[in-house]
Design brief:
There is one protein chain. The protein is of the alpha/beta class. The chain folds into 3 domains: 113 residues, Nucleotidyltransferase, domain 5; 147 residues, ATPase, nucleotide binding domain (Nucleotidyltransferase, domain 5); 45 residues, N-terminal domain of TfIIb, CATH 2.20.25. Helices cover 36% and strands 26% of the residues. The protein has a 5-stranded mixed β-sheet, sandwiched between helices. Strand 9, helix 8 and strand 10 form a beta-alpha-beta unit.
Length: 324
């Protein structure tokens, strides 16, 4: 039986999972919507990964988590490694493109840029405040136009005269889009304008002042939109690579980090059947008034965070009526 390693990337919109072999090959992969419940989403991802591994003689020996819910899911899975998204995406991308110098990543509700030189991340920036440069903006405009977001890219490529869309702000962009539709612009020209607006917002926001050099790799859910890919290529004047597994890159990266970690323990996919609860409590013991999150399994607190001192953790447990 050979060793394998599990990486899970839990985002606000989607949850991704990857299992890699000792040779760093992807044995199984899953991409599902988080739907506001990261614990339930991870359960579904684990079921899918387990089914893909059926008949393969492997044992998962290390687990890594990344993404916005990485600490919560790291506790749930007993992860050996919990890493931020920048590190995970950089490691995952370098494993497939060792010469990459600029990584563009646009997800459902945030985006990031990572600058690498000689295989080392030297600069990065993240945007979690403005929706105008994210996948959620793209989805909302698709609904407004009555066109499935999956078809947005193909529409954009058919455009001969893309219209300008004010993409600096979601509210202004939506007003501009409605105005352009009302005065008679063709849907494909409006959609091409939306794709260009997303790229311009991204480059003028988190890409501002960055030393953008090829090779470029574009990842995240929005990388599947060929209209946005074309807009990036037009903006930077170079080809932009999009991998088939680009939407899984964070999970791949943290799986590879877990593979190189010193800790080892057999992972049991049956953890998906264990009931976990999360409880939020305000300490109130001092002016900090920490908001403490507890994760509970079978009535017992197995971990928690948000407290600035040990007393805050204990007060939160007492308030929740849980035991350790």
């Amino acid at each position: 039986m050979s060793e394998a390693y599990l990486g899970v990337d839990i985002g606000s919109i989607s949850t991704k999972g990857v299992v890699v072999s000792q040779d760093r090959e992807i044995l199984a992969g899953s991409y599902l919507w988080t739907e506001g419940n990261p614990v339930a989403a991870v359960r579904r991802v684990l079921r899918e990964l387990e089914s893909q591994l059926e008949g393969k003689d492997v044992q998962v020996r290390a687990v890594g988590t990344t993404g916005s819910a990485r600490e919560l899911i790291g506790v749930m899975l007993g992860a050996q490694v919990v890493k931020n998204e920048v590190t995970a995406h950089a490691i995952g991308t370098l494993s497939l493109h060792p010469d990459v110098r600029t990584i563009f990543e646009i997800g459902g509700q945030d985006s990031k840029i990572i600058i690498l030189r000689d295989g080392i991340p030297v600069d990065y920036a993240m945007n979690t405040l403005c929706a105008a440069g994210t996948g959620s903006f793209l989805s909302s405009q698709a609904r407004r136009l009555g066109i499935p977001v999956e078809e947005f890219g193909e529409y954009a490529l058919r455009s001969k005269r893309p219209t300008k869309i004010a993409g600096r702000c979601t509210v202004f962009a939506e007003s501009d889009l409605v105005h352009k539709a009302q005065i008679g612009y063709q849907p494909e020209d409006i959609i091409a304008g939306v794709c260009t607006a997303i790229v311009n917002n991204y480059l003028n926001n988190i890409g501002k002042g960055k030393d953008l050099q090829p090779p470029f790799v574009f990842q995240g859910g929005v990388s599947k939109n060929v209209g946005v890919v074309r807009a990036f290529e037009n903006a930077v004047g170079h080809s932009v690579t999009v991998d088939d597994c680009g939407h899984l890159m964070g999970a791949l990266g943290v799986a590879l980090i877990a593979a190189d970690s010193p800790g080892r323990a057999d992972f049991d996919f049956a953890v998906q059947d264990i009931v976990f609860e999360t409880l939020g409590e305000e300490c109130g013991g001092c002016p900090n008034d920490c908001e403490v999150v507890l994760i509970v399994r079978e009535g017992r607190v197995i971990d928690g965070w948000g407290n600035r001192c040990a007393k805050g953790f204990e007060r939160a447990k007492t308030a929740a009526g849980a035991v350790s």
